[in-house]
TrEMBL record:
This is Phytoene desaturase. GO terms for biological process: carotenoid biosynthetic process. Its EC number is 1.3.99.26, 1.3.99.28, 1.3.99.29, 1.3.99.31. It holds the Pfam family Amino_oxidase. It comes from Halorubrum alkaliphilum. NCBIfam families: crtI_fam (TIGR02734). Residues 18-490 form the Amine oxidase domain.
Length: 508
């Protein structure tokens, strides 16, 4: 248990995604009486699992990155990740097929990756090494000065340490502009920018600071937890329960009502008042649907002006036979991917030449598929808000399977024995994501750092945000850190006896 005490403090948590579970663990460890409400029949949120006919599919995140953040979380409670799941480091990190017939395996060894860059462009090896060194510097500056300390308020960025870190982070350039300073070949630019899939942005409007993701990839490695990413969800839940959190599934929160000395949680008939409430649901949904109208002071059409990351078309396929041509992680990329980004962010439409990600965990882990079968997940980023009526989805399914076949030579269509799908409407209905976004708020310049929602709900006493829609942002590691930062905010507020609306706004 930590040296700070929340004994006697009742905390309700709305939503059992990674951020909510992490916050539950930290808060319960501090002595709070934690009750978590999850409306689905299992925790995890978007990071769910489908099990059917011997196949197992992770429904959401499929990349295990930044292992030190997981070690930080479990280490806080006296555990190690290895107590809960076994990690396999992947090599190659991923395989790329382009529409012109070209194919590369991107190796785990940075020097081998440098040689790959040299094969496409004279001087590419040295350019890659420089880029990677700069990415490492940006990562260290960003993590040590911004992300780990949980700086979520504008005043937090006025320290000399943060201002010095800003030089490494290059906040005002776009990632596309930054990458173009190192390499010219369009395929090499794609290899340095593909990590945008984890951030929900376009190369043209994602800040150059996210160059640091290349260090996450090449410097820290890509891993896979045997059994699937849901093993991580279950591990975080186990820690929360171990520390005393009371986790309830199949319980839907229908409203939140700030009351004197606490926040009332409405459960569609029952009503419970907690001293503090943490929301692991999208901030926009909290403000527009759960709280009474006007609870949060906003200027104009604040939420209508937000940029949301892509939705996604997902196929979960149980496939007969092997797919040796595909790696654990495979990308099928058009040589010109700008039209796909335009179809997401500029002129929302179904892409004609989609960028496709294929995940085949059974290549690493035979336990996720029956013998002589493969577990295959296909993901295509889409613009949020698209009409995904059944007939439209069926037409796109054909496009996607044809794209995979034409790029990789793997025709899955006649080998599918199990099939599930998800798209815009599922993300909107199941997870209350605005527009059916799969990722939530994108990491644009105006939605990064202190310009992203912080842990405290503006102007509402005793109510907090946690999860990918808040600072520090999208991804399982960031959601773990969000849980830590949210618990810190609760502990700070309790230690000073709470705060009213005016004092909170003054602190901001």
């Amino acid at each position: 248990m930590s040296d700070r005490s929340l004994d006697g403090t009742s905390v309700g948590i709305v939503g059992g995604g990674i951020g909510g579970l992490a916050a539950a663990a930290y808060l319960a460890d501090d002595g709070a009486a934690v009750t978590l409400y999850e409306r689905s029949d299992r925790v995890g949120g978007v990071a769910g699992r489908i099990e059917r006919d011997g196949f197992r599919f992770d429904t959401g995140p499929s990349w295990y990155l930044m292992p030190e953040v997981f070690e930080r979380f479990f280490g806080h409670f006296g555990h190690e990740p290895a107590e809960f799941y076994e990690l396999e480091r992947l090599d190659p990190h991923y395989r790329v097929f382009w529409d012109d017939g070209d194919r590369v395996d991107v190796p785990a060894d940075p020097e081998a990756a440098a040689r790959l860059f040299e094969s496409y462009e004279d001087g590419g090896a040295e350019a890659f090494r420089r880029y990677l060194a700069d990415a490492e510097a940006a990562y260290e500056a960003g993590m040590e000065q911004v992300v780990l300390p949980g700086r979520s308020r504008l005043r937090d960025y006025l320290s000399t340490d943060v201002l010095r870190a800003g030089r490494e982070l290059a906040l005002l350039d776009s990632l596309d502009e930054r990458v173009s300073e190192y390499v010219d070949h369009p395929k090499l630019r794609q290899l340095l920018q593909y990590t945008l899939v984890f951030l929900g942005g376009s190369p043209h409007d994602t800040p150059a600071m996210y160059q640091l993701m290349s260090h996450v990839d090449y410097g820290l490695g890509v891993y896979y937890p045997i059994g699937g990413m849901y093993e991580v969800v279950e591990a975080v839940e186990a820690v929360a329960r171990e520390r005393g959190a009371d986790v309830h599934t199949n319980v839907e929160v229908t409203g939140l009502d700030p009351v004197s000395g606490g926040v009332a949680v409405d459960l569609g008939g029952d009503r419970y008042v907690h001293d503090r409430v943490v929301c692991n649901v999208p901030p926009e949904y909290v403000e527009r649907e759960l709280l009474p109208a006007g609870s949060v002071p906003r200027l104009g059409n604040y939420w209508d002006r937000r940029t949301y990351g892509p939705s996604a078309y997902l196929l979960y396929l149980g496939v007969e036979g092997r797919v040796d041509e595909l790696a654990h992680h495979t990308l099928a990329l058009p040589t010109d991917w700008d039209p796909h980004f335009e179809a997401i962010f500029e002129d929302p439409r179904w892409p004609e030449e989609p960028t496709v990600y294929v995940n085949v965990p059974s290549r690493t882990d035979p336990s996720v598929a029956p013998s002589s079968h493969e577990s295959v997940v296909i993901l295509v980023p889409l613009a949020p808000g698209l009409d995904d009526a059944p007939e439209r989805r069926e037409r796109f399914r054909e496009t996607v399977l044809e794209t995979v076949a034409s790029y990789t030579g793997v025709d899955l269509a006649d080998r599918i024995v199990v099939e599930e799908s998800a798209c815009v409407s599922e993300f909107a209905r199941r997870f209350n994501r605005p527009g059916g976004s799969a990722l939530g708020l994108a990491h644009t310049l105006t939605q990064t750092g202190p310009l992203r929602p912080g842990p405290r709900v503006r102007g509402v006493d005793r109510l907090y945000h946690v999860g990918g829609g808040t600072n520090p942002g999208i991804g399982v590691p960031m959601c773990l850190l969000s849980g830590e930062h949210c618990a810190d905010a609760v502990a700070e507020d309790v230690s000073i006896g709470g705060f009213d609306r005016l004092s909170f706004l003054a602190r901001e």
